[in-house]
Amino acid sequence: MSNHDEFNHLIGEVKMTSLKGKDILHGSQFSKRDVEGMVRIASDFEKELKKKDSLTLLKGKILATLFFEPSTRTRLSFETAMQRLGGGVISMASAEGSSAAKGETVGDTARTVSQYADVIVIRHPRIGSAEEAADAASIPVVNAGDGAGQHPTQALLDIYTIRKELGSLKNLVVSMVGDLKNGRTVHALVELLSLYQARLYFVSPGNLRMPEEITSRLKQKGIRIEETEDLERAASESALIYVTRIQKERFTDLTEYERVKGSYVINGEFLKKLKKKITILHPLPRVDEISSDVDTYPGAAYFRQVRNGVFVRMALLAMIFGKR
Ligand code: NCD
Questions:
Q1: What atom in ligand 1 is closest to the CA of residue 184?
Q2: Which amino acids bring their CB within 6 angstroms of ligand 1?
């Protein structure tokens, strides 16, 4: 295939999908077809970027990142993705530096930014804030984390990583570990895993269990779930463990945080007990839940997962803009 043919093939894929002009707010909004289209486009971009540093697909388009909560990977990978696609970026990296500090609502900020940019990526500490921004904005809005709610683009990059690391999304058995109550990445990821009928272990301290609203909906869909505090047993049954940070910033009582922090730690000793290779993902940042001696373990995929974030966000942006 010539470069030109390859490019047309890419555009064809983009046209086929249903995300054009859409807000990206919740993991449950994706169909299997969306996910599979995204995986193919992301993997095309991954190959393209081996040949050149940047493309021109979104030349002239502007992405605005509005981050009212700390972020390293999500904001920088979205900005990288847009620039690799030839687009431009404007960025508000903290609430303190913006009119939010003067009391402006999320809606008014989104309405304002709609006058400058072509797509908004927003992170905010309040559940439902991305939806509020989307209602007010006249351009597509992407939820990059709304409090303890959802983080749908992380789920997409997690799925892409799982496919790459395990070779398939069929017959998955996954253990999700840590703060399942407040972890927005797991809230979004279970929605995508449910499209593939994955079998799930939810491993957490008793007070950080997956919200009942989510588990009951998964059960209704026929997804096999087991809630447990026994990480070793769950991990020995799983091909993949998805580790999360205890979300300190969501605790109103810090003594409660002190009590549960360090509940689960993946280290070399733990991996030896498993007696088989396992794939380990983590959305990062980690605090103490994966020790650094695990980083050289062949199944430790969390930094490869970081890199995949760029290809997946490129794919998502291309899909939102459709053929232009
Ligand atoms: C996560 C987040 O912000 O929800 N990080 C990320 O986006 N990669 C996870 C976390 O903060 O623990």
A1: 4
A2: 73-74, 145, 151, 154, 184-185, 245, 283-284
Closest CA to 66 of 177, 142, 159: 142
278 and 172, same structural domain? Answer: yes
Q: Which helix (H) or strand (E) holds 243?
A: strand 240-243
Report the alpha-carbon distance of residue 182 to residue 178 in Å, rounded: 10
* pLDDT tens per residue, range 89-128: 999 988 888 888 889 999 999 999 999 999 999 999 999 9
Q: What is the CATH number of the domain that holds 91?
A: 3.40.50.1370
**Does residue 1 belong to any structural domain of this protein?**
no
Q: How far is the CA of 141 from the centre of ligand 1 (A)?
A: 19
Q: What's the confidence (pLDDT) of residue 192?
A: 98
> Each residue of 223-257: pLDDT tens digit?
999 999 999 999 999 999 999 999 999 999 999 99
Q: Which of 154, 158, 208, 306 gets mutated to test ligand 1 (max ligand atoms within 8 A of its CB)?
A: 154
Q: Which amino acid is at 207?
A: N
